Amino acid sequence: MKAVHINDVSKKFGDIVSVKDLELDIKSGEFFTFLGPSGCGKTTTLRMIAGFYYPSKGKIYFDNQDVTTLQPNKRNIGMVFQNYALFPHMTVNENIAFGLEIRKYDKKTIKEKVDRIRELVHLGPYGTRKINELSGGQQQRVALARALVIEPDILLLDEPLSNLDAKLREETRIEIKRIQSELGVTTIYVTHDQTEAMAMSDRIMVMEHGVVKQIGTPQEIYHRPNNRFVATFIGETNLLTMKVQSIEDNIITVTNDNGLVLQGLTENLAPGLQVSNGDEVFISIRPEAFENGPGENTVTGIVELIEFTGVSVNYFIKWNDTTLKAMIISRGTAILQAGDMIELHIPKQNIYFLGE
Ligand SMILES: Nc1ncnc2c1ncn2[C@@H]1O[C@H](COP(=O)(O)OP(=O)(O)OP(=O)(O)O)[C@@H](O)[C@H]1O
């Protein structure tokens, strides 16, 4: 299992800067995810790690080895793509064995390794099945087995679940995570699905337009977003533009033109953000940050719209011309109706201050 170090890497295609000045350290054995919208540079970064593209600038290391311009087949990586790229007319065993045969292992070793990895991906009885006789989820597990059987130092997964339906996607996600933790292989996972990223990763890198917006654990990314892009891309949030009115005893009071006044804690300022009286600042409040009844930052308003999701009730509340979305866990108690008055509050520690 190897660590991956990316030092000041950029990739240009003509005038397009696909990845810009990337600095990244992925630890040995880590499950690390590249997350971001289409075109943000995730796949380009993965392809540079795989060796399909060479960087326009900077260096890539596996542990201490400079692999920046090493050919893909010399890097000992396993790869899984969204379209599986399996041989449909060949059996499961033949597909898994492919990389071992290229590496010229003897027949006995190949059989042992293939059998072992087939068990690991829970395809034990399917060795002699043809690929086109398997479901999508099973095919994806064959692709995973084929990538893992060569005992790669690094496993690269590019949107491996996007061809599966929702239920299968969730099952396969759990399988991939189980297999990865059993083997402890350094894994880099590319996705635009934030739920997948949150559920599977040790750490996540959020990208936009070829630039890193934040690197952190799922909890850090969710609860401590550095900027508006991360706050809105991961989960939902109420984003308000406010002005700093005062800062006293670690409490920041902010207001806006609609007469809203909110108070939060200086410890919830985004990293590096400093504010003074009169500064404009962005406030992020998650829908689940609201609590019933009056308290700190009491919100009294009219319910405009209600969504009942089973687990929760989402109230869209009009409060001094600002609409806020509040999510209250549903415990079978009476639900308010549109037009009703509602009173909730937002504990100070649930208010986050963002500068950009
Ligand atoms: N071979 C290429 N030639 C020219 N431009 C490219 C090439 N590969 C990627 N790009 C451009 O680089 C940018 C980043 O692309 P990339 O595929 O890395 O994004 P992505 O985040 O993986 O998106 P997606 O989720 O859609 O795959 C895009 O603007 C894309 O058009």
Task: Describe what this molecule looks like in 3D.
The protein is of the alpha+beta class and 356 residues long. It has helices at 42-50, 92-102, 107-120, 136-148, 166-183, 194-200, 218-223, 228-233; strands spanning 4-13, 16-26, 31-35, 57-62, 65-66, 77-81, 154-158, 186-191, 203-208, 211-216, 238-248, 251-255, 261-265, 280-285, 291-292, 298-308, 312-319, 322-329, 341-345, 352-354. It has 2 domains: 4-231, P-loop containing nucleotide triphosphate hydrolases (Rossmann fold, 3-Layer(aba) Sandwich), CATH 3.40.50; 236-354, Beta Barrel (OB fold (Dihydrolipoamide Acetyltransferase, E2P)). The chain contains 8 helices and 20 strands. The strands form 4 sheets. Strands 6-7-8-3-9-10 form a 6-stranded mixed sheet, with helices on both faces. Strands 13-12-11-14-20 form a 5-stranded antiparallel sheet. Strand 9 and strand 10 (211-216) form a beta hairpin. Helix 3 crosses helix 4. The chain starts with a strand and ends with a strand. Bound molecules: adenosine-5'-triphosphate (ATP). The site of adenosine-5'-triphosphate has 12 residues, from strand 2 and helix 1.
